[in-house]
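Request: Give me one sample?
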Amino acid sequence: MITVRLEPENRELTVERARTVTQLLHSVGRKPGRALVIRDGGLLTPDLNLKDGDYIIVRDVGSRG
């Protein structure tokens, strides 16, 4: 299970079946290139693998017009 913090909503949720960053973004309704994915203070690319116990921050980028 992966814990995800969505920003700027400041909401946390858990995701069970995401093996890659791309799968994680899809499961939380974000598009690659429209959100930063952060683990342990470092940015992750869409192809990186995730593991159980990860704490991930998904931060939206871009203007909200």
Observations:
- The helical segments are 21-27.
- The two ends are 34 Å apart (CA to CA).
- The longest strand covers residues 2-7.
